[in-house]
Amino acid sequence: MTSEDDVEEDGGAATDGAQAPYAAFCTAAILAAVHRAAIWRDSKDFVDTRSRSPPAKVFEALAQSRAATCSVAAREFLNEHFESGPRERSKMPELADWRSEPAVARGARCEKSREFATHVHELWRVLARLDADDYAEEEVGAEGEARRTTSSRIRLPYPAVVPGERFRETYYWDTYWIVLGLLTSEMPATALGVTNNLLYMVTTYGFVPNGARVYYLNRSQPPLLSSCVAEVFQATRDVEWLRQALPLLVQEYAYLTRSERTVTIRDTETGETHELSRYFANTTRPRPESYREDVEVARRATRKVEDAVAKLEAKRKIYRHLASAAESGFDFSSRWFLDGDNLETIRTCNIIPSDLNGFMLRVETQIALLAREALVSLENEDELFAERVYLNHLLEKFSRASEVRRRAIDAVLWDDDVKRWRDMAFEPLMGEDTRGIVRDRDDLTAASESPFTSDFTPLWCGACDPDSDQAYEVVESLKKSKLVTDKGIATSLVESGQQWDWPNAWAPETHMIVEAIQIFAPREEEYAKTLAHSWLRTAHQAWKSTGYMHEKYDVRSTEDGVGKGGEYIPQRGFGWTNGVTLRLLEQYGFPQD
Ligand SMILES: OC[C@H]1O[C@H](O[C@H]2O[C@H](CO)[C@@H](O)[C@H](O)[C@H]2O)[C@H](O)[C@@H](O)[C@@H]1O
Q1: Separation between Cα atoms, residue 456 and residue 460, nearest integer Å
Q2: HEC string for 67-86
Q3: 366-411: pLDDT as tens digits
Q4: 60 is annotated as an active-site residue
Q5: How far, in Å, is the centroid of ligand 1 from the Cα of 220?
Q6: Per the residue annotation, which of 8, 364, 551, 554 is the catalytic one?
Q7: Residue 579: closest CA among 267, 295, 182, 292
Q8: How far is CA 593 from CA 333, 485, 537, 589, in A?
Q9: β-sheet bridge partners, residue 130
Q10: Which reaction(s) does the protein catalyse, per the Swiss-Prot or TrEMBL entry (predicted)?
Q11: What's the ipTM?
C-alpha cells in the first residue's frame, strides 16, 4: 500500500452516510492500518471485529500512534483496541416452530431423501442468530450505551437465519430462499420473523441494505422483499400484517426507483421512452469488507493514468462499479466487465441488467396483487374507507407500473435473435451526472455475447405470459445455451476466475429457472424436474464427500464438487442452498438413479 492510497481515500467513513457510530472505524486511516498490519486473513474479519472501546477513544489512540506508517505500530494499535477476531456474540436462539421430521422428511420416497432432508432441516438451528439482546448483560447505563457502538452489526428484532461462515449476518436476497426453505420446513413463524427483520430495516433506513452491517448501508441487493412478503402471506393469510407491510414495500420502491438508479431510453422508431433500472451503490470508496481487494483492483486499473486528478476520478468510478456489482448479488462476474474477462474493466453502472428489471417487474406486480388481497379482506369494512382508497390507489398505480415495465423490458432487453433477455450497455459520457441518464435505443449494445443465467430471470418474473410461445422459446434458448450440464446450471460460459461465472452453479439461479419453467412453460415440466434432480444430486454428493452444504457448486466432475473462485474462500452453511434443496426435494423427491 502506498501513501497515495491512504491519502486518497481518507477524510470520510467508507460507509458513506451510515448512521451507526461504528462506521467511523471504516475510515481509510483504520482500514489502511489493518491492511498494513496483515493480522486478518479475510478483509471482512476486521470490520466484523468489535473494538474494545468506543470510537472516540480509539481515534484518540490512533492519533497518538504511528499505526499509519509502521506495520509494527499498526499491529500493536489493533491488538490493543480491537478484539482478536470476529467472535460470534449473538446467541443461537431456539426456533420456536422447529420440529424434527417435517413433511419433506417424513414423506420422503426413499431413505437417501429422508436422510438428506433431515440433515438440511437440522441446519436451520445452526444458522439461527438472535441479535436483539446480543450484549444485554453489558448494556447498562452510559457505559453500556457506548459499548453498543463497538460492533458493525445492525441489530435485528427477530431471530435471523444467516447464510453461514463469514456471512454471519442477514443478507437481503439470500433471505428469500431462506424463507422458501423455512416454509418447506413448516416454520412459518421463523419465516415471518426473518421477513420482519427486512421490513424493520426499511422502517429504519428506507431500504433493505445488502446485509445487516453498517458497512452495507450504501447499497441494497436484488429486491426480493415483496417476494418474501408474498410467500409469508400465502402461508399465514394474516391480512393485518400484510396491511402493515404494504406501505413499507412502497417505501422501498421509492428508493429503488430513485433517479440515479433509473436510465431513460428513447426509441426513435416508435417515439416511445422507457424507464429501466440499473444497480448504483451510493459510494465512491473501497468496500470496507473488501478494502484491500478493491484498492488493489483500482490501482491496477489506473496504473497508466498519469494525471493525479484523473487517476483519483477513475478510481472513484471503479469503487462505485465494484460496490454496485456487490449490490447485484453477482459479485463478481464477467457480466460486468467491458473486456468480458478482467475485473479491472468493471462497468456495472453502465449496464441495464435483465435480472434487475425482471425483479422490478416482480415487485410492481406483487405490490398490486398484495394490495388486491388486502382490499378483498376489507370489502365489508365500512369504517376503513380511507384504507380502501389507499389500497385501490396502490392496485392501480402498481398495475400500471408493471405494464409499463413489461413493455420496456420487451422493447429494450428482449433479443429476438437469441430468444432471451440480455443485459444492455451504454457508453458513459464525460462529466455526466450520476442522475438522469438518457440514451437512444440505438446507442445501446449487448453487454456480453455469451449467455448468463440472469438472462432467464425475467421469465421467472413474468416478462411474458404463462404457456405462451415466447415462454417456450426461452426454454429452447436455455437448452441451446450450453449452460445446462448434468451437474447443474452453470452461471455463464466464461471462465474468468470469478465466482459468478463458469463453472459455478448457484442455488438462487437454479431455483428461479426451475420455477420459471414450472409456471411459464408447464409443458416442459419434465425438463424442470431434470434440472432440479441435477442440483439435488450435486448438492448431495458434495455433502457426502465434505459433510457440508455449500454456497455454490462446480458443474465439472471435481473431487468434492464445491464451487470456488472470487475474492474469498468457499463458504459452507449455507442458507439459500438449504432453502432451495428442501424446496426441490419437496417438489421432485430425490432422483431415483
Ligand atoms: O465480501 C464480499 C461480498 O460478499 C457478499 O456477496 C456474496 O455473498 C452474499 C451472501 O451469501 C450473496 O448475497 C452474494 O450474492 C454473494 O456474491 C456480499 O453480499 C457482498 O456485498 C460483498 O461485497
Answers
A1: 7
A2: CCCCHHHHHHHHHHHECCCC
A3: 999 999 999 998 877 777 888 999 999 999 999 999 999 999 999 9
A4: no
A5: 11
A6: 551
A7: 182
A8: 34, 17, 9, 12
A9: 91
A10: alpha,alpha-trehalose + H2O = alpha-D-glucose + beta-D-glucose
A11: 0.94
